[in-house]
User: What shape does this take?
Amino acid sequence: MMAWLWLWADVAAATVPLPDFREALARQRWREVDELLTRGCAPQPQLKVVMCQEGVTKAALEHIDAFRDQVFEDAGLEYLAGLAHRYDGEDAAAIRRLRAALRLDPAHRAAWYDIGELYLKGGRYDKATEAFERVSELLADGENSWLGPWRLAEVAAHQSDAATFEGHIKRALQRGFSFQHIAGLPNWQRFYADPALTDTIDKLLTVYAAPGIADTLRQPPE
Assistant: This one.
């Protein structure tokens, strides 16, 4: 699935005779739109974008907006609208729809994560920090709980803040982060090349990383 499935992961089995009809409608439309984006869009790792077949994102947004206008607003659908705009490279529109999702559901972890990425991309570090702090709070345990501290560390690295970077990385390591995740990544090669960060990264790699990870970061970024 292209979208984050935790949106519905905590929904318990119905224990009353009649399920919430509004929720059932929203879940059905969410599945339809998610399937449309999943079938019609694919990541392009080399270009660092998601590319969609012609008309896919337009159709997804039409489905979402029709539901919003005719039935009600739903956080999960607003999140998918944010994804569709993001796939089209329309960052401002994506942020607007993700903000709408968070207005409807302030605990929507996927929306906080995606909006954090967009703020980081745009150099809005205070906003990115706020978003990833919420991810860290909302996803505090489990196999992916390192995501929030890891992205907070990257925000600090973009600002050449070695002390904050180190603190977040250590917290990520406590939650299951591995330096294997960042081996050879161009942004981490740039972090390593930053004189303000090199010694801190070397120290962390010496203690916590498998042999060879440092070599992948010493290569010039693509």
Notes: The mean pLDDT is 91.
